[in-house]
Structures
1.
Amino acid sequence: MNNVININSLSLGYGGKPVITDATTSIDAKDFVFIVGKSGSGKSTLLKSFYGEIDVDSGNLSVCGVDMKNIAISKLNMLRRHVGIVFQDYRLINEWTIEKNVMLPLIVNGFSKAICVNQAQKLLKHVKLLHKANKYPLELSGGEQQRVAMARALAHNPVLILADEPTGNLDDYSSEVIWNLLRSAKEFLGTTVVVVTHHIPSTININYRHFFIDEGYLHEII
Ligand SMILES: Nc1ncnc2c1ncn2[C@@H]1O[C@H](COP(=O)(O)OP(=O)(O)OP(=O)(O)O)[C@@H](O)[C@H]1O
Ligand SMILES: [Mg+2]
């Protein structure tokens, strides 16, 4: 499938108050997309609509070929199995170890225990947290939790990664680790990557698309 996200005259908001107005664009397989905009401009809202956390007010939105308008929960759960999400507030399961948190998308997809453990350990190694595999989220710093969230998002080799400020709490070195992981996902696995950020890293060294949201309108800088 070439067209991973299709947006047509899309409007989104809360309780009738518009946040995104009349957005139209499409994001193709293997695109690496940055969405920027000032705080409160609607970046998270737009990203949330891509995994069905925000309903479509008007217009059309399809993700991986699935129409997101009035989507049934069963269909949404199916779609989410193919998407990796890094939430702005991480949303780790505090009662689970770090390793089990990273295993979550693999467990949902029915992989065997051995594969889950193997893959979780590989990713924790990538984000330099293997030594904390048996700790719990609340025993980790904010930046460490953010790296766990990224490891979890990548665990099942999703076709689409949606990441909301994935380096918001990280120092330069850890940010570099995250950008390299996302770049590798695109280059070696053909993953489509959509990242909300306040700063596009100058060292990213990849062809990317650059969108910004201003006054509710989505623009692309070409
Ligand atoms: N659950 C909600 N209910 C009502 N209004 C909301 C809700 N979530 C966000 N908003 C409002 O929608 C607007 C866009 O919020 P959003 O979180 O998308 O911004 P953002 O661009 O991600 O900001 P930031 O850079 O601070 O994360 C803001 O005015 C915010 O107050
Ligand atoms: Mg946000």
2.
Amino acid sequence: MAAYSAPLDDFKFLLHDWLKVTDNYQAMNKGDFDADLVNEIITQGAKFAEEVVAPLNLNGDNQGCRLEDGKVSTPDGFAKAYAEYIENGWNSMLGSEIYGGQELPYSAAIPVHEMLMSANVSWRLICGLTESAVLALEKHGSDELKDAYLPNLISGEWTGTMCLTEPQAGTDLSLLTTKADNNDDGSYNITGTKIFISGGDHEWTDNIIHLVLARLPDAPAGVKGISLFLVPKFMPDGSANDLSVGSIEHKMGLHGCPTCVMNFDGAKGWLVGAPHSGLACMFTMMNDARFQVGLQGVGIGEASYQGALEYAKDRLQSRAPQGIQEPEKKADAIIHLPDVRRMLLTQKSLVEGSRALGLLYAKQMDIARFGTPEEQANAEAIIAFLTPITKSFFTDMGQEVSQHGVQVYGGHGYIQEWGMEQHIRDSRITQLYEGTNGIQALDLISRKLVRDGGKLLSVTNELFAQMVSDIADGSSRDQASGILNDWHATAESLLGTDAVATAAKAYDFMQYSAYSLIAICWLSMADRAQTSGNALAQSKTKVCDFYLKRIFPRASAHKISLALDEHDLMQMTADEF
Ligand SMILES: Cc1cc2nc3c(=O)[nH]c(=O)nc-3n(C[C@H](O)[C@H](O)[C@H](O)COP(=O)(O)OP(=O)(O)OC[C@H]3O[C@@H](n4cnc5c(N)ncnc54)[C@H](O)[C@@H]3O)c2cc1C
């Protein structure tokens, strides 16, 4: 099984040569984060991911989680690695300084997150959810709640969960029935059952803080009647709250992360944000989590690519059609075979292209947090538009890349000990949770494009137009400009589309957008690699060439579908299926 080796050269190229993130830091009074410091952060993060977290991945998958006497335990070594993680301050990278966080720029922290996801996505999930819970609490919690809970959530002494899903309420949260009764002392009693709760219980920390969606007695029906509550496993006085783990799920992948049925039996909780505005507050958590899930796709994709690459260089089968490559051996390594190269290059171009778009997004997160009010508004608009793309495309990509990884191994890829089939199983959930990819696509076209009237589109287009104009090579600039203009015009042509046609076009628009925007990133990256003389220049240029010739044409198929109305999808009656 290939050992994970963090792609530090790629991160350094993207952060410093391509995005020039530290120029941005100067403008945002974060000038103490110079390139050396950023490199030190990601180098130490890489060491932790490679040496502490990655070695637990295969056994974590085999062993899974256990529920005994109402208590959940995770695979051997997971809790110890977490203790080391918080001890070294990794959990507090992004938290606000006033609550003990380090307020690192996102663009310095996100590479560490991606590396941890490559190393062991099951282990990383609970840490990510805690970070997202911190954001929701920082933005919407009362001062009392913030003072009481943020320091320990930010340090990692406690972890957080997201409790939305109920048996009858998945995508459609208007159907949720968990109720909250007012105790008239500022607290509420929460009663109901939540399912599929990641990290609902574990042995890592003394307390777990659940963020729970529930309805007040006077709540209007639908999503406008949902409120958000903070419900701790242990109360401030140390007594146990009235909640329990009903069971843990036995699932396809992600075995090292406990997925719990949580029973709230009049558990005490406190309101976060205003009554009935719970979904809006929860969206702060969900949007962050959606990007993080996207990063899971990139991280797992990278791990699969590394495994496939090592094997392709090692595995001797057949002679290459272009002539014998390794005459001293009985056969050539399969990396010389065009079809194996097709798979490896598909993996590499998709992973590196997605990583680039992800770090571009992280730079916008920096601006949204530390920029001037005007810059913040601009960056928030770009983030809003790109979030569903990063979540859905990166995770579809992670699954596709994982499939290629198994294929490169032949039958051995199907055998557990190589770790390649685990990537397929682990990445499959990323297309489903935090809102399925179908829902992300709908969010993009419906809320972020059509209902918004094209404002987010226009701001996002400006960001990419700037990227295009910065391309030094004339022919690359023209090519990128053509792709951007085509994408922008196609997106604008969808404004005014009715609800049924919008829903029918959603997936194609998401895919078309992602392939197009990543094509522009590739042209820009290849150009910058050349002009900056980065050691990756040759590789970036060649992988860009592959992406444009063999991956980007997929965008055309989606564009053809975008021109269709919904008739072909809707003409069959349900009985005719
Ligand atoms: C391992 C795991 C971990 C999870 N962790 C958490 C967690 O920590 N917290 C939490 O609250 N939840 C969690 N979930 C739940 C997860 O977020 C939901 O499963 C997911 O949102 C989809 O809901 P559902 O499963 O009920 O599917 P459904 O909503 O029943 O969807 C079924 C299908 O219908 C489609 N569909 C539904 N509505 C629409 C629509 N309007 N337009 C187009 N298509 C639609 C969906 O895309 C999907 O293909 C987890 C789930 C799993 C399996």
